[in-house]
């Protein structure tokens, strides 16, 4: 279905704001840019910026409109037959920044900005951890349970924290693989 004029205009405004924010952050650093400057660069009002990105500056770079939860759901539900849930989640994270080595330049610059900016790094972690309950429900579904028990909530949290921890290690990819090896030992049925 084709988006209506109003939806196209909203999407264009969101993109203009996000693009302006990224450009300014890369030029001057995240902490040296105000929301007013971003709004002006996108030719909008500050109120418009907050209407589209109520979480503020961090969301301009990391807003996903539910993409994280949807992609986690797809990783679990659409995994190949015979692939464990934890193997599917490992493959999912290994194929994302900061573990992929072949990122397009623009995406690499965005990732470098996030990883070098404490406020963005903390916000990214918060957004991922917010997927804990939906991931626990997916794990319960995969285990054939009606609802997630405490163990599956803990596993969901560990899975979502693992990329954050592994990405700060000298060999990110090896750290991610090792962490998932340990998770599979703790939850062999998943």
From TrEMBL:
DNA-binding region: 34-53
Stored InterPro entries: Homeodomain-like_sf, HTH-type_TetR-like_transc_reg, HTH_TetR, MftR_C
Domain HTH tetR-type: 11-71
Keyword field: DNA-binding, Transcription, Transcription regulation
UniProt keyword Transcription regulation present: yes
PROSITE patterns referenced in this protein's UniProt entry, alphabetically: HTH_TETR_2
PANTHER family per the UniProt record, alphabetical: HTH-TYPE TRANSCRIPTIONAL REGULATOR BETI, HTH-TYPE TRANSCRIPTIONAL REGULATOR RUTR
Protein name as catalogued: TetR family transcriptional regulator
Organism of derivation: Lentzea indica
